[in-house]
Amino acid sequence: MNVLVYLVPLALALGGLGLAAFMWAMKTGQFDDLEGAAWRAIADDDLPEEDEKKK
Amino acid sequence: MAETQDLSVFVRHPAEGVAAMDLVVEGVHCGACISTIEKGLGRENGVRGARVNLASKRVTVEWDEGALAPEAILDRLSGLGYPAYPFAARTADSVEAAEEKRLLKCLAVAAFGAMNVMLVSVALWSGAADAEGWATRDFFHWLSALIVLPTVAYAGRPFFDNALRGVRQASLNMDVPITLGVVLALLLSVAQTLQHARAAYFDSAAMLLLFLLAGRFLDSRIRRKTRDVATNLAAIKAEKAIKLIDGGEAVETPIAAVAPGDLVLARAGDRIAVDGVVEDGRSEVDQSLVTGETAAVAVAPGAMVYAGALNLSGALRVRVSHAAAGTLLDEVNALLGKAIEQRSSYVQLADRAARLYAPVVHLTALATFLAWLAMGLSWQPALVIAITVLIITCPCALGLAVPAVQVVAASAMFRHGVMLNSGDALERFADVDAIVFDKTGTLTLPQPALANSAEIAPEDLALAGSLALASKHPLAKAVAAAAGAKNPLAAHEFPGQGVTVFHEGKRLKLGSIAYCKAEAEAAEVAARWPDASLIAFRALERAVVFAIRQALRPDAREVVAGLAREGYAIEMLSGDRLVAVEEIARELAIPHFSAGLKPADKIARLKALRDEGRHVLMVGDGLNDAPALASANVSISPISAAHLTQAQADALFLGDRLAPVADALHLARKAKGLMVGNLWLSAIYNFIAVPIAILGFATPLIAALAMSGSSILVTLNALRARSAGARA
Predict the structure, then answer these.
(1) Radius of gyration of chain A (CA)
(2) What ipTM was assigned to the predicted interfaces of this complex?
(3) Contacts of B121 in chain A (CB under 8 A)
């Protein structure tokens, strides 16, 4: 049963980490636009030269 | 006329030296649009950044203060192919957005608490603690308390606040028994743990809050979604006024920035954007959207004109004013106050259930306590059993029964083009048994259309249409629209009379009857279309008279007939002339109608109907309908309605068709049925669970299972509001 001494705090800490991550995501506005985020992931904005060529 | 624009009212200042503006953008629907807009605006000098929100179809732009004018951003966006419209968020919206965020935070905390306490509880239920003896069990109970007590203290606040408010106002709402149940469950559990007892109910309290918060959060989210769409639509159709700054310079200004005392120019063919007194100029105005009256009214300096009126012939300068005594606006405002006062306050279904439920449950708990005492049990175990009764009857399913249906039904209505303004409108829609329609703009479309096209030769119509394009007169616009004309003739306009051109060797004229000398033909057409406005076209010897009238909504006939078949009493109350009203009533087969009504007359009629015991749905759009909408049991307006009217309506419907009104009624009936069904489901749950608790057999496992089970059952039942189509 001594295993509980560190397993229980560990479980709570992991859960708390998830909660903190959620709160942080909400505070930084990551749930404001649920549809746009899906498109931004596939946007090629890391390829600027490609963009210029098209113009 | 090229006016400069002034958008300064929409500009925010989030930081020193930074200006920002929120815009509604049309036509954004994919990732390509996002990068086009963000990069396109980013290339502009001085722009610090642009952020597209695809879900709400909005863009937020930030730029260095003074580096560029806000108008340039609008130009740039329309250059990119995305027409944009600035909007200012209402304070009420941001308050509700904050409330929604708070609910989401509470939900997250409750989910965290419930998940972790279950980790411990499942071990307890499986008997782990029995094997280990009371030390381990106590340790697990204290662990649960450590998790649940802070969770409830944080996540339960929306309920506690609401319950406190209810108690202060001496009215029982559903949150009172919920709060009582949760608080008692926790107190009892702590006391039990202190005494090394077997049963603690920490997990039940956490689960209960989780379920209820999920329901509330979804409810508030669907309401915000409909409101966002309404705000976007309002921004897109936002009218602008042409403000005359001293010296006569004309500046196009959003209405929000026009203040009483300003001088505003209303050109011929424009809708007047403000309420005010005519300072200068003579014209005729069509006030049909304001008063329902379709005949034009002549105005001269000193006359009062209202926002929404159509300026027909000459330019007017209007001094913006508050509602002055004796004007229509003043009358409407006064009546509105009275109507809201008189409105029988509707008690929501959930609150009615709570009023019935709470005393019964609390008395049952008391009776349990006394009965066990009488049977010789000492007071402590008797109290524990009594509190278990309260915990197990804590109205989890009851609290979800109504909101769950509301969420599903509101989103189903949204798909049918109906946006609900108020939460309890759904229940009131379901009770309706009489429908009162306004005529102009409600049964008919807001724009006038050509009525006698069948009697006019196509070549005349085509020629008249091309000529009509040269004029800004609304009747001419209707002719041009009917002809589908695309190529304007280079015509000369005589304001207030008509347009003329010399075309292929003929002199063509389009204008008033007198201008085209078409009195004989006009008399004939007027006899056939008594409610129409006339406009004449002359080519040499031949004269044609067009009858322009407000066209019925395309499906008005079927919808009204359908509603009458379903047993709704249908009535039409209009401010228009009797001839015009009679015509429409005959066409739609509406037996009861009244014409020439003032706003007070409409209210009186509605009151008479309500005194007969009827539940009245008022459908109207004009400024004069606002008091009637407020005094009806429930009301709905087309999205084209006057601002004041929209604010009073319980729901808005989109588009040219009338069908959403019928759909709203069907969906609401279906939803009400499901709500009542849900309330019965939770009552049945209590019939089963309460005897178990009274007899003292309710273990924490039974409590958790029963509460979650009933909540899930109620939620699944609510989902049926979605799958059932509009036709109930």
Answers:
(1) 21
(2) 0.82
(3) none
